[in-house]
Amino acid sequence: MVIESFLFGCVMKNNSIPNMKKVSIFYNPDISGVESLVQKIQNDFMKNFDKLDPVPLIVDAENKLIEKNEKMLIDSDLIICVGGDGTVLRLAQSIVDESIPIFGIRMGRLGFLTESTSQEVNQKINSIISGNFYIEERKLVKAEYDQKTFFALNDFVIGRKKLGKTSSIGVWINEMPIAEYRSDAVIVASATGSTGYTLSIGGPVLMPNSESIIIMPLAPHLTPSNPIILPSGDQVVLQVLRDDDAIMIVDGISELNIAKEKQIKISISQSSMLFLRINNSYNFLNRVADRLGWLRKDHTLS
Prior knowledge:
The chain is an alpha+beta fold. The protein is built from six helices and 17 strands. Strand 9 (167-173) and strand 10 form a beta hairpin.
């Protein structure tokens, strides 16, 4: 697929967009009402695309999307993702090496990553067909460990596998020792992840186009939990110093055992996840203010 052909959401003639012929609908069947919405999308828009195939979120014994469904996603020009932010994170893990835009439909609770509600689906898909959209790029964060590279849209969490005892984790930034955290875990998040786990422990909200990363300890003992924000190009090294049962959790989905005193190198990746946004529809700060209750009905700002 040639992403540049619709990168700026130019209006196309004849209600068609070049190279957007194969569309997959990735969905979480465990969420109430999702399957009926997927069927409605198929019924209403099948005529507009060569393919409009449903791809359910089904995982194998290793908690990975089954191979058949992953291949269907990779062969898409656009993926409509129906569910919550967790469904989007699942999808991101499957297409991390691809340049396929995601159009998110919120059926979950928060929806920081999704573009549409279920009530707006027809209106917004018609906007896509008419070319009234743009592509938003969000940088991934990458971790290098044991000669393997892992990618996260939100965050990496490094800590003990079992609760009830603190973990001792050393942190170096650009080869300079910064901290030894005795905490439940240390979170390293992207700008997208700033509305995830770190937000729940008082972390900052970063604009989605930021290429910064956040380092933040979870429940540190005798140490302030101040976040550290690093610009693009800086590298973080984490090392579990005293524990034999440490793990790294990738986007809250997959787990990896971490050996004591073995380095994890984390930095911003050059790879991005692409999100399709409707023109004059999506505003990140407005979305955050609404979700976090910064503006209530009794407030007088206009």
